[in-house]
Amino acid sequence: MNSTSVSNKNTLNLHIPKNFTLVLIICLILLGICVIASLVFGSRPVSFHELIDGLFHPDVESYGANVVRKRVSRTIFSLLCGAGLGVSGALMQAVTRNPIADPSILGVNTGASLFVVCGIAFLNISTANQYIWLALAGAAITAVFVFGVGSMGRGGATPIKLVLAGAATSAALSSVVTAIMIPRSYVMDQFRFWQVGSVGSATWSAITTFIPFLVIGMLIAFITAPALNALALGDDVATGLGVRTGTLRLIAALAGVLLCGATTALAGPIGFVGLLATHVIRLIIGPDLRFVIPMSAITGAIILTISDVGGRLILSPGELEVGVVTAFIGAPILIILAMRSKVRSL
């Protein structure tokens, strides 16, 4: 038996959580509310008529209608980035078997940021395609390094060791990023908002560049979900079920890196979305990744979009970058989760 047979067997024995349909409906309603709020609220709120004109009447050239049209790309970009970060968090938690794993906590976002900043400072890159490939390289190298460091010593890659390795790596790489940017004012000016995470500069070009990476990462996540369920039972049990654990971890980790690296390249290092989205869904519908992964995508989109709207309202008529908002919400939750994990380990 191989991983394919495990996947087919699990698919045939699909048990839908009893509250899944209700949760899905509620999440879709919340998603719709977030989309409307993202189009309506900002430095200049728009009325219902302006919203309708902006979406369905291209011949209307009023100020409010034009504001709505400009917010459409930002809203779509926010939804896509949130979905990518949500699924990336679910994959990283499954691969590391670490309930508090997240691209930002493991330092993957910072590694992607470092490579992008180096590209701008030393290679004069300026296009979304160039940003993405550099970010993917940085994210992949950082992920391998953090997992390698966290695997050293007795007990292998435990959740706490991975978090500590990720935090230390992230701090070190952040210092390097700052050291590169400070003497180069043009780099700092270009990415001072990107560095904290923002979807405010979204363009249709960035969206079309991002979509292929998002689709590939999502497909890999859905395909590997059944085998990842077996991996949650432990490597020995998964191997007995015919899962090639090493290959599975590599493929799933690559998908996670692809999603968070591409997001970081275009929106900056936005943290805690994957952690929050996956934890909320696991608590509500259970641990089955065949349901957790798609629902993490929807929940991640909700969290990032509503955080973006909140950032606009808090400092209106200015705005607070979405990366600051998600960090403000996610950091206390991470502390609580870490404390609970410590208590259980005793």
UniProtKB/TrEMBL annotation:
* GO CC annotation, single: plasma membrane
Instruction: Please give one Gene Ontology molecular function term for this protein.
Output: transmembrane transporter activity
Q: Which domain of life is it from?
A: Bacteria
Pfam families for the chain: FecCD
InterPro entries xrefs: ABC_BtuC-like, ABC_transptr_permease_BtuC
Q: Which GO terms describe its biological process?
A: siderophore-iron import into cell
Q: How does it sit in the membrane?
A: Multi-pass membrane protein
* Compartment(s) of residence: Cell membrane
Asked if the keyword Transmembrane helix belongs to this entry, the reply reads: yes
Membrane-crossing residues? 20-41, 76-94, 106-125, 132-150, 162-182, 203-228, 248-277, 289-310, 322-339
Sorted alphabetically, the keyword list is: Cell membrane, Membrane, Transmembrane, Transmembrane helix, Transport
The coiled-coil regions, if any, are none
Family named by the database record: Belongs to the binding-protein-dependent transport system permease family. FecCD subfamily.
The molecule here is called: Iron ABC transporter
Q: Which organism is it from?
A: Cohnella abietis
